[in-house]
Design goal:
Layout (H helix, E strand, L loop, with lengths): L42 H19 L12 E6 L5 H12 L3 E6 L11 H9 L5 E6 L4 H6 L5 E7 L5 H15 L6 E5 L6 H12 L3 E5 L15 E3 L2 H4 L5 E4 L15 H8 L3 H4 L7 E3 L12 H4 L7 H19 L1 H5 L1
Parallel strand pairs: 1-2, 1-3, 3-4, 5-6, 5-8, 6-7, 8-9
Helix pairs in contact: 1-5, 1-11, 2-11, 5-6, 5-11
The structure holds N-carbamoyl-L-aspartate.
N-carbamoyl-L-aspartate binds next to helix 2 and helix 6.
Length: about 325
C-alpha cells in the first residue's frame, strides 16, 4: 500500500536501470531466538518487550485469562535450582497463552543419575519443545545449553550472571508507577556480588537512562563494580539519599563460600531497610525486592508489608505479564513459519 502522505519517489536518473525490487520486509520487533541476557539489548527492544507486557496485564486481571496464541506449543521448565516465583510465573504465562507446560524436577530426572547438562538438553530437544526455560547454578550454563538446541531458550537465572526476565519485570513495575525509567535514581542495596538480579537490572536501568547506585559492604560488591555503570556507597543513608526506587537484595548464602558479614544482626543494623533509613530517600520513594525476602535480615518486616511503599507483590503480578510478552515475541518467527 502506498502511503499518500509520503513524497513521490524521485525518477531514476537517465541510464540507471530501474528494478522492481520486492518490498523490504519490516524487521521483527525482537529479532532474537533466545533471551539470555539484558546486556547487549538496545533500549528499543527493551521497550518493545515492556509495551507488550503492559498489554498482557489487563488479560491477567480478567476472569477468563486464557487465549490460544500458543496452542500446540510446548514449554519445558528446566530448573536446576529452587524457585517459587520464576518457575510458577513461566508456567502460568505459558498456560495463559494456551501452551502445554512440562516442569522438569531435577531431583526426579536422569540428571540425578549423572547425565550431563548437554545430554539433558539434547534429550529434551529431541522431543521438539518450542521454548526451554532454564535456571542453573553456574554462570554461562544456560548459554552453553542454548548452543545445543534448536528451540527458544530463556535464561531464568544462571549463577550470579543474569536473570533477564526479573530485570524486565522490575522495569515494568517501575514504569507503571513512575511513568518512565529515564532520569530516575535507583539504589540497589545488599548482596550485589552474588546477585544475577542486580547485574541484569544494572544493564537495563543504564540502557533506559536511569541513574544506578549500589549500597553494600565492600565484601558484598563484585570487583570493579563501578565499571558496570553504578555509583558505589557503603552507608545506607548516603546511598538511598534522594532515591526514587530502593531495591533490596537477599543475602544469597547458597552462593557464598566463606564468611562475608560479621553477623546477620550487624548486617541488618547497617544495611537493613528500616523506616529510619528510608527517610533519606525521596518522600515518594518506592521499595522493591525480587524475593524471596528474609524479614529482619535485609528488610524490616513492616517496611516490606507497607502497601503504600512496597511494590513487592506488584513485581510478582507483573512477572507473569512480562513472561507472556517474552513467550509471545520469541515464538513469533515459528508461528509465522
Ligand atoms: C532471585 C533469584 O533467584 O535470582 N529470585 C527470583 O528470581 N525472584 C533472587 C534471589 O534468589 O534472592
Amino acid at each position: 500500500m502506498i502511503d499518500s502522505a509520503a513524497p513521490a519517489p524521485a525518477p531514476a536518473p537517465a541510464g540507471v536501470p530501474t528494478t522492481d525490487a520486492p518490498p523490504v520486509p519490516s524487521a521483527p520487533p525482537f529479532p532474537h531466538r533466545d533471551l539470555l541476557t539484558i546486556q547487549g539489548l538496545p533500549a528499543r527492544e527493551i521497550s518493545v518487550l515492556l509495551d507488550l507486557a503492559d498489554s498482557y496485564v489487563a488479560q491477567n486481571r480478567k476472569r477468563d485469562k486464557k487465549t490460544s496464541l500458543l496452542r500446540g506449543h510446548t514449554l519445558i521448565n528446566l530448573f536446576f535450582e529452587n524457585s517459587t516465583r520464576t518457575r510458577t510465573s513461566f508456567e502460568l504465562a505459558a498456560k495463559r497463552l494456551g501452551a502445554d507446560v512440562i516442569n522438569m524436577t531435577v531431583q526426579a530426572s536422569s540428571i540425578a543419575k549423572g547425565e550431563t547438562l548437554i545430554d539433558t538438553a539434547m534429550t529434551l530437544n529431541a522431543m521438539h519443545p518450542d521454548v526451554l526455560v532454564v535456571r542453573h547454578p553456574e554462570s554461562g550454563a544456560v548459554k552453553l545449553l542454548a548452543n545445543k538446541v534448536n528451540c527458544a531458550v530463556i535464561n531464568a537465572g544462571d549463577g550470579q550472571h543474569e536473570h533477564p526476565t526479573q530485570a524486565l519485570l522490575d522495569a515494568l513495575t517501575i514504569r507503571r508507577r513512575k511513568g518512565n525509567l529515564d532520569g530516575l535514581t535507583v539504589t540497589i542495596c545488599g548482596d550485589v556480588a552474588h546477585s544475577r538480579v542486580a547485574r541484569s537490572n544494572i544493564y537495563l536501568l543504564n540502557t533506559m537512562g536511569a541513574r544506578v547506585r549500589v549500597v553494600a559492604p565492600p565484601t558484598l560488591l563484585p570487583p570493579a563494580v563501578e565499571r558496570l555503570g553504578v555509583t558505589v556507597f557503603h552507608k545506607m543513608t548516603d546511598g538511598i539519599g534522594d532515591a526514587d526506587i530502593v531495591m533490596m537484595l537477599r543475602l544469597q548464602s547458597e552462593r557464598m563460600a566463606g564468611c562475608y558479614i560479621p553477623s546477620v544482626r550487624e548486617y541488618f543494623r547497617f544495611f537493613g531497610l528500616t523506616y529510619e533509613a528510608l527517610r533519606a530517600a525521596k518522600p515518594d520513594a518506592l521499595i522493591m525486592h525480587p524475593g524471596p525476602i528474609n524479614r529482619g535480615v535485609e528488610i524490616d518486616s513492616e517496611v516490606a508489608d507497607d502497601i503504600k511503599r512496597s511494590l513487592i507483590l506488584d513485581q510478582v503480578e507483573l512477572g507473569v505479564a512480562v513472561r507472556m510478552a517474552c513467550l509471545d515475541l520469541l515464538t513469533r518467527a515459528r508461528r509465522a513459519g
